[in-house]
Design a protein that fits this description.
alpha+beta, 6-stranded antiparallel barrel, 16 strands, elongated
């Protein structure tokens, strides 16, 4: 009995050590191999809107953090000068078309004149064959035909020029109408206006950013997993996501990045490899971005905040 009592403490010690080893092994596998990470962010596409035309902003329809639908009017640039440009282009088209009509009428007249001259020349040729007219009269008829043909060619060239002028005037009119249309800046996507700094009365310059819209249909999660965990992550795998704010939802692995920057191999002079001569003894696993699509059934999908922190756990299959 005494021997049994003496053996109990060593057995308990061995059991505790064995349990500690098992737990340590499990913790090692969990933290180094299990496909989960605390380093994840909610992402979304941000559309930066700029004006295609220049002018003063006369109307601002949105406020900061306001939700907008695709096609909603965000702001209006003063359209006065562009309306005048459209009117000027319309008058230019009318003038060009009138000139085209004159050229077409001139061609018809010259064709009739040429037909007349050829008929006269044919009659005089027949009379000359019977010596009824002099050579001078027949030569004059031939000259009149040549002159009429030259006039017709000139009018045909003028017609081509008039047609080109009409095409240019119509193109200028389309450009003027497009500029007038672009004075109205519309939302290209469904989303939220963010960090709005533009105010009515500001002067908009073509190409300068005016409004940023967060695309509410593009929310996704980017998880940065250590390279040791990638063998257990596959496209289409189910994922549990927990935001730091406490929200939970599911998702699906959409894709895994195929490359990250190699900081140890930066381009050197003459495009030669610049290898770090010192060796880093402590090697840390690189983190690879994994894109995660949010479950469409999640009710708060379009109310997420881009840039917030999340914890991502990949649900491993039985295999």
């Amino acid at each position: 009995m005494l021997d049994v009592r003496k053996a109990i403490p060593p057995l308990i010690t061995l059991a505790v050590v064995a349990l500690a080893l098992v737990l340590a092994s499990y913790a090692w596998v969990y933290y180094t191999r299990a496909p989960w990470t605390r380093d994840a962010r909610v992402r979304a596409d941000v559309v930066s809107l700029s004006a295609d035309v220049t002018g003063r902003i006369v109307e601002l329809r949105v406020q900061d953090n306001q939700h907008v639908n695709k096609g909603d009017l965000l702001l209006t640039i003063d359209p006065a000068r562009y309306e005048l440009a459209v009117q000027h282009a319309e008058r230019a088209v009318e003038v060009a078309r009138a000139a085209l009509g004159q050229s077409q009428a001139a061609i018809v007249a010259n064709q009739a004149l040429l037909h007349q001259r050829k008929s006269e020349e044919a009659r005089r040729r027949a009379l000359k064959a019977r010596s009824a007219i002099s050579n001078e009269e027949w030569e004059k008829a031939s000259t009149d035909v040549a002159v009429a043909e030259a006039q017709l060619l000139r009018e045909q060239a003028n017609l081509g020029l008039a047609q080109a002028n009409v095409s240019l005037a119509e193109a200028a009119l389309r450009q003027a109408r497009l500029d007038l249309e672009r004075t109205r800046v519309l939302a290209p996507v469904n989303g939220y206006v963010t960090n709005l700094l533009t105010r009515a009365g500001d002067y908009a310059t073509a190409g300068a950013a005016l409004v940023a819209v967060v695309d509410s249909d593009s929310f996704h999660v980017s998880g940065y997993f250590e390279e040791t965990k990638l063998p257990r992550i596959h496209e289409g795998a189910r994922v549990h996501v927990e935001l730091m704010s406490g929200e939970r939802f599911d998702g699906t692995v959409e894709s895994i990045a195929f490359a990250i920057t190699d900081r140890e191999n930066l381009p050197g002079s003459r495009l030669l490899a610049n290898i770090n001569p010192t060796y880093t003894w402590v090697k840390l696993a690189q983190r690879i971005p994994v894109r995660i699509a949010i479950d469409p059934a999640y009710a708060g999908r379009d109310r997420l905040r881009a840039g917030t922190t999340a914890t991502v756990s990949v649900v491993e299959s039985e295999h």
